[in-house]
Amino acid sequence: MDENKKSILRAILYNTYNGDINEAQNHEDEIMQHIEETQNFLANQKKLYDKLKETPINNNNLKINISNGKVVFEKGTLVHCANRCNYEKLVNIQERGILSGDLIGISEADNAETFYCADFYRANEEIDSNKFFDRINESDSFNCRGPFSPNWKNCLKLAFIINPNAKLQDLLDTDMYQVKNNNNSMQYMLNLLQDYKNEKYGQVAAIPYGIPSNFISGIVAGDYLLQSKEYMQVLQELFPNCYVLTHDGKVFFDPNISKEANEANRNEFLQNLQQFKEHHISNGNMMIQIFLEKAPKTANISSNDNNGELLFTEHEIGKATINVNIIDKDNAKKEYQKNEPELYCCDQEDIKK
């Protein structure tokens, strides 16, 4: 059995059969049908993704609440928390977009994530950034993958924003949290959160395969990153058409306004920036310097580079942004792993010995 089929099979066993291979063997024909249908669906999804990847797009307009200077997001805006991003990770996102970990060699089935999907928070209505970001931060408080608080644990992290766009609709229509996709074969392998299929419906999205980088509209950067002129320069070189927001939803950089206006926004933010403790500054500077060591020498940046081991932890791009209760999935995974040798003792196209 090839690795792609194995990965899908693992996901189905975890999600539908709680890792019980004996029970799964009673449904062999049904499982193999779901695997085939899922492979065909994902192949078509890739074709759609590849087509959209070549679509010229500039979708970075902002709506500002004049009373408080904060951004107002349209219904359908997507946000993906990307955790810490070193140079290689930023380049990967810039080149390939926001993808499921399954597509870059890291099985989501082994991470209790939304298998073969890229996960996003979604604005289910027109919403002020402070309300939207607070909602995300509450959900993300355990994993802390996003920059949506002034706390140090969030200050070196990024999130990517995708503005609503009609050209992206065919891909968005495949969101596995949407009711119309309840009968898709993908559902047999997805550990979707019931809260978001019921009372919180419309507040998250799980897009099979992912979304190409040309549809990324903006970036939210943690407070410490915004202080680093070098980091922000590299970020803006890689994503020149993206706006940059602070964790409280104010505009730090807007590609659609003048250099002078952007400088004024930056100065206003820096004047009101929190003061970090000395050890935070030391650790943050070291991380920024190591980040810059990985940038190409042709990049238009300057810094006092220090030699050192890469401190940024690499997380796959397609990791889910949602704080999930994975106790049941962990138990299912352990049960599956216990029986895995039996499952793959032969290289056959079925799940029997």
Could you tell me the radius of gyration in angstroms? Answer: 21 Å
> Mean pLDDT, nearest integer?
80
Largest sheet: spatial strand order = 8-5-3-7-10-11-12
What is the general shape?
Answer: globular
Largest sheet: 7 strands, mixed
Give the assembly state of these chains: single chain
Tell me the series of helices and strands, N- to C-terminal.
HHHEEEHEEEHEHEEEHHEEHHH
Describe the structure.
The chain is of the alpha+beta class and 353 residues long. The chain is 38% helix and 13% strand. It has eleven helices and twelve strands. α1 (3-17) crosses α3 and α1 (3-17) crosses α11 (327-343). The two termini are 12 Å apart.
Keywords:
12 strands; alpha+beta; disordered C terminus; 13% strand; single chain; globular; 11 helices; 38% helix; three-stranded antiparallel β-sheet; 353 residues; seven-stranded mixed β-sheet
Secondary structure layout plus pairing:
Elements: H1 3-17, H2 21-25, H3 28-53, E1 63-65, E2 70-73, E3 78-83, H4 87-96, E4 98-99, E5 117-122, E6 127-128, H5 129-140, E7 158-162, H6 169-172, E8 204-208, E9 210-211, E10 218-221, H7 223-227, H8 229-238, E11 243-245, E12 251-253, H9 259-271, H10 278-293, H11 327-343
Parallel strand pairs: 10-11
Antiparallel strand pairs: 1-2, 2-6, 3-5, 3-7, 4-9, 5-8, 7-10, 11-12
Helix pairs in contact: 1-3, 1-11
